[in-house]
Design goal:
Alpha-Beta Plaits, Trigger factor, domain 2, Chitinase A, domain 3, 22% strand
Length: 433
């Protein structure tokens, strides 16, 4: 079988192939004979089905399998001979013409680009400096208290922070619309869950009070049927509950896992947890800065096939995440195009990190992976059990190996770039994603 490689672009290639028709026919015959030995059909004993019927029943499938195997082998051999690294999957198509002796195909595909890291000495990476003081612990305590808030009857008009129970009925042009009506609907006033006009109407209302008001849906509202339209709502407030935060006492400490209710011990543990979270977020910011420096210093043409594959994977992950949260996906169309920018970044970094791992010998050692797993396990009640769990889960272990490789890449890059230290307020760091 003959092969010929054409260069269609920087990364795109086309491979012309021909496979022997006689060889395909021979292999088809051999496979059909094997099938005939055990073939079962009504009216015949196993293995006694006439070959003509076996060919009619199984011939097309076997022909397709043999031809597919032959083309794949021809493609693999040609790629290996030409020392090409294929990115993604080839598009294989039959070619017209040819002769009775051969069947001709073409395979169009992309190859991996050559990756050369640029001059990192001119790049800068910002290193945040954040202190965990008593004020940071106090703010964290307030967050923990709000997570355990209880609501009690307010006995007054509604204000921000209250939880309201309401009935509402909305109409557009006198007609009801989907999602515009609800009974015993609860929401916390001021959280922004409802549109601003809706919350403004509810603010100051009392239990049993009713009101009508107009509301215009934003042009970019997620409900396309009502986006940009004006609606008239009737609203009745049925309950107003005010938030009541738990007291900072021994009972609260016990709710956080401090068995003896010692408040000093509670603050000590909270400080430790906050320090670990701050460290993780600082490392994440540094890592993002390093990755951006690598992308900026390494111009690279990315294979379209890898971007498409990564986009589809991101779509699948996003859909699975929303499904796990109970959302209906038919109302949330996912287009791979929306994930293209993220996919490009991930593909580019994957290629760069892979090249650095090879050229700079940055593959993580088992001890480095172990240290990362033990660090992750510290945030759990039984760290030793968590470590064992990681080593029993091949997928999770592989993820930690990937993170250990990234950590080595980050350290290598930091040894090349200029590091700029910057003091960052605690609130700013903790509010960032």
């Amino acid at each position: 079988m003959g092969v010929n490689v054409e260069t269609l672009g920087t990364l795109e290639r086309r491979l012309s192939m021909s496979v022997s028709a006689a060889e395909v026919e021979r292999q088809v015959g051999e496979r059909l004979k094997k099938i005939a030995r055990d073939a079962k059909m009504p009216g015949f004993r196993p293995g006694k089905v006439p070959m003509k019927l076996v060919v009619q029943q199984y011939g097309p499938r076997v022909q397709s399998e043999v031809l597919g195997d032959a083309v794949q082998k021809s493609f693999d051999d040609a790629v290996k001979q030409a020392n090409l690294k294929v990115a993604g999957y080839p598009r294989i198509e039959p070619k017209e013409g040819g002769s009775q002796q051969s069947i001709e195909f073409s395979a169009t595909f992309e190859i991996y680009p050559e990756v050369k890291t640029g001059d990192l000495s001119k790049a800068t990476v910002e290193r945040p400096g954040v202190s965990v003081d008593d004020a940071a612990v106090d703010k964290t305590l307030e967050v923990l208290r709000k997570q355990r808030v209880q609501f009690v009857p307010a006995g007054r008009a509604a204000q921000d922070g209250d939880r309201l129970c309401v009935d509402f009925d909305g109409k557009i042009g006198g007609e009801e619309f989907e999602g515009g009506k609800a009974a015993d609907f609860r929401f916390v006033l001021g959280e922004g869950r409802m549109l601003a006009e809706f919350e403004q109407a509810a603010r100051g209302m009392s239990v049993g009070e009713g009101k009508s008001f107009d509301l215009k849906f934003p042009e970019d509202y997620h409900g396309k049927d009502v986006a940009g339209k004006k609606a008239t709502f009737s609203l009745v407030v049925k309950e107003i509950d005010a938030p009541q935060l738990p007291a900072l006492d021994a009972e609260f400490a016990r709710s956080l896992g401090i068995q003896n209710g010692d408040l000093a011990k509670m603050r000590e543990e909270i400080r430790g947890n906050v320090e670990r979270e701050v460290k993780k977020r600082v490392e994440s910011r540094i890592k993002n800065g390093v990755m951006q420096a690598l992308l900026d210093c390494t111009p690279i043409e990315l294979p379209k096939s890898l971007i498409e594959m990564e986009s589809r994977q991101l779509v699948e992950r996003a859909a699975a995440d929303l499904q796990a949260r109970g959302m209906k996906l038919e109302k949330l169309p996912f287009e791979p195009k929306a994930f293209e920018a993220t996919a490009k970044r991930r593909v580019g970094l994957g290629l760069i990190i892979g090249e650095l791992a090879r050229s700079q010998n940055l593959q993580p050692k088992p001890a480095e992976v172990r240290a990362l797993i033990e660090q992750e396990a510290q945030s759990y009640d039984s760290p030793a059990e968590v470590v064992k769990w990681f080593y029993m889960q091949p997928q999770r272990l592989s993820e930690m190996e990937g993170l250990a490789l990234e950590a080595n890449v980050v350290n290598w890059v930091l040894s090349k770039v200029t590091i700029v230290d910057k003091v960052v307020p605690f609130d700013e760091l903790m509010s960032s994603s």
